[in-house]
C-alpha cells in the first residue's frame, strides 16, 4: 500500500514534504531511488545550466580528469560497451564544474567517490550533475584539509557528549582530521561499499541536515569508545589507534544502517542547535562564499580554540519555553543555567531559573568555590528529581558578556571540563544578550532586576565597574520583543529559587550561603603591589614593572604546540643546587584551562614544569625563561594571586615590546613576585657594576 502511495505521489510531482510523509526517513525502493534523491536534493527547483555545456575539453589538467574518469567507471563493473558513454558523461560533469567554478581539478578532493553512487542509480546525465553539485556545495565542507573548521566542530561536539573520550584522544594528539577526513569528503562512500552507501544516502538526503555527517562521526566514536580507551590504556601506538579509527566504517553492513542513522538523530536531539546557525556558512556552501573573519570565532577565540560548545540566548529561552516530548520519547536538550557573574551584578538582575556560582570565588576562596560546586550539583539533582520546569541535565554557563570579566567565567567552565563533566556549554553574549532579548518586559522576566544597578541599564553603576582597565559599551536593546508565552519567566520559575536555597542534610550548614549568593565572608588576600606603585621603568631590556593586567593575548609557545617537552623527576630537579626557590602553582591557558605546575627559580632563569597527569612525581619542562626577559609582572585587583609574566624588551625610548607571556595562579603570589623582583634587581646591579 505504501509503495502504491509513493508511486502515485511521484507520478503527480509531489513536493519534498509530501514525499517525506510517505518515505518517513527509511530505505527507498531501488526502482524509485534516483527520482527521490533528485527531489530530496532540490533538483526540481534548481536552474540547470549544465545542459548548455559546449563540450569543449581544454583544461590544462584535462588528461588527469580523463584518467580519473576511466578509473572511476572501471569501479562500477559495467560492460565495455557501456563504459565509453559513462566516461564521457563523467568527464563532462567534472570539466563543466571546474570551468563554472574556476577551479583546478584535484583528484584528492574525492569527487569520484561522490559520483559513483549517482552513476550507479542510473540517473539522467543532467540530474547527475545537479545532484553532484548539490552534494558538494551543501553536504561536503568547503575545506577538509588538516585543521579545517569541520574537524574543530567535531571535537567540540565530542567534548560536549563525552569529555572523557575527548581527553583521552587529546592526550595522544589524535584529532578528527587524522581519521575521518575520507568519511567527511565522500559521505562515507570511499570507505563503504555501494550496498551500504545506497541505504545510508537514502536516509541522509531525507534528513536534509548539513550537519548530519558530524553526528554520524559522533556515533562511530561513541560506539568505539571502550575499544579506543582500552587501546590508550594499553599504550598502543598513536599510529595504530588512528588506523583502527579510520577503518571502523568498513565494518558497517546493510543491516547496521537504520540503527546507525537513528543513533545520529538521537545525538542531534540531545545537542543545542546554535552551532548550525553559527557555522553553516563557515563550513558549507559554494566555493564563491568567502569566510568573514568573524565567522571563524566563538566569542573572542577562533573556533580552533573554542573552550566548549556555544549556545545563543535565543535558543536557551526557546528551550526554556518548550515543554514538548521529543520523538519516540527521547529526552531533548534541557538547560540548567549557571550564572557566573560577580554577586553585585547577579543581585541587580538575573534569569529566575539561574543558579549563582560566583566566578570570583574560584580565585579568592577556592574552598568555598568547591563547596558551591557541590551545591550546584545537589541543586541540579533535586531539580531533576522533582521535575522542576526550566532545569535540565545540560549545564550552560552565563557570564556578563564583557570580555575582561568573562575570562574568569571561562576558567570556571574549564574547571568543569577538566572534571570531565558532560553537557557543558557557554551562553553567547552572556547576561547582556538575555537583557537585550527580554527588553520588552525586564521586570517580568528578570529576577531582582534593579535598573539603577544593572550593568546594561546603568553602565556607570557600581556593579558595572570592573577591575580591569578599559571602557565597556552597553548592549544595544532591540525593539523587537521575543515571542514568548504570556506568562513571564519570573512567574514561570518563581519556585526555583526556593529549591536552590533549600538546605540539605548532606551538606554543611553554611552551604546555603554559597548556593543562594556566595558573597564570601572572608576578606580577599591583599594585593601584593599598590595600584599607585607602578615601579620604576628602567630603559633597559633586563628590567620589569609591576602594573595592572591589561589582558594581552599570549603568543608563541611553539615548543608546547609541537609537543617538544623534556620529562623530568620534579623532586630530583628541585634538589639541583642551582635552584634557589620553588613555588607550587597552576598555569592558566588562554582558554581558561588550568594545569598543576611548578615555578622553579635559579639566579637567572625561571623554569615552568607542568605536572604529568599519567606519571607520578614527574613533569614536563614547558618553558625556560631568562629572568632578564621579564618586562612586566601584572595582576588583577580582585584576584591578586592571578599573575601574568610578560616577556620582551624595553626600547631606548622607553617603549616596551611584548613577545610572549605566561599566566599563573600562585597561592600567596606576593612572596613569589617579591622573590622574582629581588632576583631581577640583583641581575641589574651585576650588569651595572
UniProtKB/TrEMBL annotation:
Subcellular localization: Golgi apparatus, trans-Golgi network
Gene3D superfamilies: Rhodanese-like domain (3.40.250.10), Ypt/Rab-GAP domain of gyp1p, domain 3 (1.10.472.80)
Residues annotated as transmembrane: none
Residue ranges occupied by any Rhodanese domain in the UniProt entry: 331-439
Biological processes, Gene Ontology terms: retrograde transport, endosome to Golgi; vesicle tethering to Golgi
The keyword Nucleotide-binding belongs to this UniProt entry's keyword annotation: no
CDD domains per UniProt: TBC1D23_C-like
SUPFAM superfamilies, alphabetized: Rhodanese/Cell cycle control phosphatase, Ypt/Rab-GAP domain of gyp1p
Protein name: TBC1 domain family member 23
